[in-house]
Amino acid sequence: MMRASVRASLAIVVTAVVLGGALIGLLSSYWVFLGTAVLITGVALQSLGLVVGRTGMIALCQMSFAGVGAWTVGYLNIVGAPGGLSVWVLLGGLAAVPFGVAIGLPALRLRGINLAIVTLAFATAFDTILATITFPGQTSFQAVPRPELFDSDEGYFVFVLGFYVTIAVALEFVSRSRLGAAWLTVRHSERAAAAHGVSIAAAKLSAFALSAFVAGISGGLLAGYLGTLVSENFSMMQSLSLFAVAVMAGAHYSEGAVIGGLLVTMFPEILRRLGLPQDIGNVLFAVGATQALSTGETMSETFRRLARKLVPSRGPNGKPPQPASLPAPVMHAAGAALSIENLGVRYGSVVALDKVSLAVPAGTVVGLIGPNGAGKSTFIDAVTGFLPLYYGRISLEGKLLEGVQAHRRARLGVRRSWQTNRIAPELTVGQYLRLAADGLSDADIAAVLAWLDCPHPDTPVASVDAGTRRLLDVAGVLASRPAVALLDEPAAGQSYEETLRLGKRIAEIPKLFGSAVLLVEHDMDLVRAACSHIAVLDFGKVIASGPPAQVLAETVVKTAYLGVEAEEAAA
Amino acid sequence: MNELLTSAVAGLTAGGTYALLGVCAVFTYRLVAVVNFTGAAIGTAGTFVLIALYEAGFPLWPSVLAGVVAGTIVGVLVGLVMTTWFSEANASTKAAVTVALLVGMIAIGLRLTGGQHPHVMPDLFPGSAFRLAGVEVTIASALTIGLAVLFTVLADRFLNATRTGLHLRALSERPMAAELLGVRVQLLSVLVWAVTGTFTTFALMIIAPQRSPNFMTLSLLVVPALAAALVGLFRSFWITLAGGIMLGVVEGLASSFDGVSQYRGAIPFVVVVAVLLWSQREARWDDAR
Questions:
Q1: What average pLDDT does the structure give for chain A?
Q2: Alpha-carbon distance A3 to A54, whole Å?
Q3: Domain with A99 in it
Q4: Residues of A with CB below 8 A from B220's CB?
């Protein structure tokens, strides 16, 4: 992972040096001046890409954050703060962070649409406030000075390029880190993220705060670029148009931000030279954004797809690290790993679970079976903290879990897999496992993947078939070596042979990983192969429990589960 | 005291407009599952057709009719974009699309109407309707509030008491399933867009003389409208109605205090933040995900 980040960062730096050098060396000052505007817009777009592209939220006040940064720089200039523009720009970025957090906070738990509304309302509010208080130095014509070394147009271009590249490289590292994987997962499925112990609030807030910081920097850079600013530079319309461009170009890619910057800067320039009105640009951005949203592919993604066609990739590069041995099991206390007493769940007047009691002793695999609609998935949801309300007691290694949020339960050691595929397709297999199990070495990850016949860590999840994604989900749960692993139909989508193999693997989990397992499954061969104890659920009640052979022979189980009529079963 | 009442009552026209736009936003959200950022822009387009015709010397009321028809058509066009390409998209994507459309509509609108160039917006309903505790209540404010209440009643009855309303609710939950049941999804959705287009256009025509009639300013009335809709949590028509009127009244009150009045535009933001913080006590997980 680290190597991939370094490679990508080197590519960014080399491209920036070559293109930047070419621009300065070959073109006139005028074009260099325009190039600086491209980069400043690019920085603003990177900040927007962080929120829009990575976490999938709609943010419509990015230029207001930039305005906060610019205002701060203007103020520091007026009061004659030490440090010069480069320090002021950073301080401007920091000044925008509290605004980002304050606006992100009320929109945390609810759907992304609310963030769109709150950010748009903030942009309006900021417009009125800025129109009233005006920029420091706006009326006294005190321009923000550029650093002496970078005073010329070429010099300031290099100054801005330095910021752009630094931010791009930093974002490259963050996006490949566990935090970056958490953002993508939150965008794809908040539940899945919480099931890996990711705090949704922290993930969203961190993205929003970082985004405000970068936007603030772009505002500060603009202050040095133009010298004096007016509130129109940061109006709501600018934010809206920037959003459209970000959606159109794919601003969460480093080349996407530059493409967007080019569109914003060069399009009016071209229109001006053609003698056409410059505001047509926004119409194009609106059409482009709508097009990108309908195809689900941004300009950057289109270019990347075409580039891949031209230059076929070498496939996952490098040999997999030798899958020598699995990571050592985590020792958990003996006794009941998970114990459930009188668990009850109601959906309106429907009783989904009725006084269910069940224990999963440490070191064992317990099966939970039952017909469709018996309440098995509801049971897992309740245990892992995804239901707002249930009755009864759930305890993990003797510790009560009442009132503990889902992501905290996951961190305590209650982990689950899902019936439906919830793995963010933008991740690689290795990134996914690192998200699921923090702090594993590359060799450990490769070993866990190999043990479950999962693909190479560098494989993109998007290219993995649905059945294998199930296994990947299980691999993630196991890699974290939790106290209890709740596996929700892991064999769905597997062939018969694969299912038998999976059964053997699941039976080994307690020994190899130290985790107790609760297995929800329909496949009886898998259940027989893996479980030492099973419980049968029907209409929300446990109707039988005990060793598999004995339970599956019971008449009541055959009637409820295997669909055999009572008299047939008795015969 | 009387002065305060005067400024509060002065906010009623705006409040009625916010309420009507807000109720339209809730209507659109509940029936076609779109948080519509273009709501006010659709009405603005119709309003500017009226202005153009009026400035060209056409008689007032035929121009109003033409404007309302134009607003309805623009609403239908936006609706066609949404139903043709985004009927199966998630709520967040649909909202993003309407934001993109808003950018385009404002750009086109500003171009066609000459940007900040001043326009003559005829006052459709000048004069005072009645006196309330010694304060004149204008016809315009009585009319916007009346219209908002009418739309609220109709929307409420329609959704809860008619078969078509039931169909539309089914449609917003699961368009595909509704289609399989034989509901004419696209036709019904476009009808929703047409109806909201008609009402918002009329509302904007009434409020336009009070604001600087410029395409962008009017389009951005969507902000207080969505704030009102949030007060109703995008569910309740009646709470949205109350929220919109309240927003207008608070703005009116704020305008009478020096030192606060120039920050009036920040009021929707304060309301949105307060409502979100309040409503966050519940609602944990996205259903769909």
A1: 86
A2: 21
A3: 2-234
A4: 124, 236
In B, which residues are within 8 Å of A240 by CB distance?
99, 102-103, 106
Any domain includes B288: no
* Residue whose entry in the numeric block shows the structure tokens 């207008």: B248
Residue A233 near residue A221, CB atoms below 8 Å: no
**3-state DSSP call for residue B68?**
helix
CA gyration radius for chain B?
A: 19
SS3 content of chain A, % helix, strand, coil (to 5): 60, 10, 30
Looking at residue A405, its amino acid is Q
Name the pLDDT band for B126 (thresholds 50, 70, 90). Answer: confident
Residues 108-147 of A with CB under 8 A from B: 108-114, 116-118, 120-122, 124-125, 127-129, 131-132
Q: Using pLDDT thresholds of 50, 70 and 90, give the confidence band for residue B289.
A: very low
Task: Report if residue A267 sits inside a domain.
Answer: no
Chain A from 385 to 444: CB within 8 A of any B CB: 386, 388, 422
Find out whether A393 and A400 touch, Cβ atoms under 8 Å. Answer: yes
Could you tell me if A406 and A537 lie in one domain? yes
Return d(Cα A75, Cα A259) in angstroms, integer: 32
pLDDT above 60 (res B49): yes
Domain count, chain B: 1
pLDDT of B175 above 70: no
For A315, which DSSP code? S
pLDDT > 70 fraction of chain B, expressed in percent and rounded: 92
Tokens 């078939």 belong to A465
In this structure, the number of other CB atoms found within 10 A of the CB of residue A55 comes to 24
Q: List the CATH number of the domain containing A343.
A: 3.40.50.300
The whole-angstrom separation of Cα A516 and Cα A509 is 8
Mutate to test the interface with B, among A51, A108, A119, A120 (most CBs of B within 10 A): A120
**Dihedral of the alpha carbons of B268, B274, B275, B278, in degrees to the nearest 10:** 180
Answer yes or no: do A40 and A174 share one domain. yes
Q: Which member of A127, A243, A422 has the closest CB to residue B99? A: A243
B287 or A95: which leads in pLDDT: A95
Locate A558 and state its tokens: 């055959």
CATH number of the structural domain spanning residue B68: 1.10.3470
Distance from CA of B113 to the nearest CA of A (A): 13
In tens, the pLDDT along A132-154 reads 888 887 777 788 888 888 888 88
The residue range of the domain holding B104 is 2-279
Pairing mode of beta strands A541-546, A533-538:
antiparallel
Q: Using a CB-CB distance cutoff of 8 angstroms, which residues of chain B are in contact with residue A281?
A: 107
Put residue A59 in one of left, alpha, beta given phi > 0 → left and psi -120 to 50 → alpha: beta
Dist CA A64 CA A212 (whole Å): 9
CA angle A499, A505, A509 (to 5 degrees): 140
Residue at a domain's end among A234, A253, A288: A234
Is residue B288 scored above 50 in pLDDT? no
How many domains, in total, are found in chain A?
2
Residue to test with chain A: of B269, B270, B281, most A Cβ within 10 A: B269
A-chain residues near B105 (CB < 8 A): 286
Distance from CA of A116 to the nearest CA of B (A): 8
Query: How far apart are the C-alpha atoms of A12 and A10, rounded to whole Å?
Result: 5
Return the amino acid letter for B148. Answer: A
Residue A1 at interface with chain B, using a CB cutoff of 8 Å: no
Q: What confidence score (pLDDT) does residue A562 get?
A: 64
Instruction: For residue B100, give the nearest of A113, A237, A286 by CB distance.
Output: A286
A-to-B residue pairs, Cβ atoms closer than 8 angstroms: 159
| pLDDT above 90: residue A566 | no
Each residue of A360-380: pLDDT tens digit?
998 899 999 888 888 888 899
SS3 category, B285: coil
